[in-house]
Design a protein that fits this description.
36% helix
Length: 208
Amino acid sequence: MVIMRSLFFEGNIQIGKSSCLRQLLRNSKLKVSGFAVVRIIHDQALLGFSIETLKTSIPPVNEVVRHRDAFLEKHNVFDTNVVTTVLKTVRDEMKTSTADALLLDEIGGREMLDEEIMALYKEILTGPLPCIGILKAERNLLKPFMSDEVKSTLINNRNKLIHYIEADGLVVDVADNPEKITGYFEKWMSANHKKIPPKQMFDGTSHV
């Protein structure tokens, strides 16, 4: 039997993985810490991405643009320092947290090229709290313009993340069907928390 202390989902892009998982967590009434990436929309176009620590609630996948000091990515410019700051906050709060679990949504992107970030991921994924989240699939990670060295580093570091997760958990490829998340989520709830929420099927109305 697989110990499902940690549970991460990968799959095709923009099929609703984050929307489904965040909806299930809200319905579960668990106290969730961690972080979530949010799409920032301006004039019905994607402006960039923000990464937010979870203080009071789980944010939606898409938000209308508002003032932000920390964009993870804006106009295709990626800021590794934003990720580092958020992960340090999650790591430090985890040690004294009263949360039931950590949401990491999502991990496994370009930030894996940074050694400090990889060390923080290891601390968090092997820490005291059950983790659940989205792991970027390898097929969505590698780009034609990347050098062989960059591709090799990303693949190797992604395999390290999988190793940390699968030490006491599971990585599930849902392909193009986010509804698969529901069944695995309920098993994860049963393994880590006494109260299992009523089955909530994803309605498929919001995609990420």
